[in-house]
Known about the structure:
- This protein has helices at residues 3-17, 48-72, 83-102, 105-114, 116-121, and strands at 20-25, 30-32, 41-46.
- It is globular, with a radius of gyration of 19 Å.
- The protein contains 5 helices and 3 strands, in the order H-E-E-E-H-H-H-H.
- By secondary structure, the chain is mainly alpha-helical.
- Strands 2-1-3 form a 3-stranded antiparallel beta sheet.
- A hairpin with a 4-residue loop joins strand 1 (20-25) and strand 2 (30-32).
Amino acid sequence: MDNQTDKYYDSQERHSSVKETYFVSVSAGTITKEENHTTDQLSVYATDKEIDQLMALFAKRAATDDLTHLRGIIPYKSADHDPATDKYNEQMLDIYRTIFRIGTEETRKHLIHMDILNVLKDPDTHLPGYH
């Protein structure tokens, strides 16, 4: 490689490791650099690679979401015994774990307060009256 190419790859490497603030909406599956002041937006401080990973998790969730919708139209099939729902919950856990890892301090505190990670792990289907 010539000197110019080396400089280009060096700058690209440095760029991808630079952390920037992004705003994530889990419900909409969006990641933006501009705050929209929506109620479900969480702020993260992440590299391009971390944002790409989060976007990939959103894409996987969207594909699984279609499967859970198909089950939803069957009135006698319970969601608590559906593999598609289990897969969807696991993907939501992956999303929230990633957001917690790259989230700002405020986002982490919010997720702890919401107790979202524990709620997704244990959907309370073992409680009386559920079966």
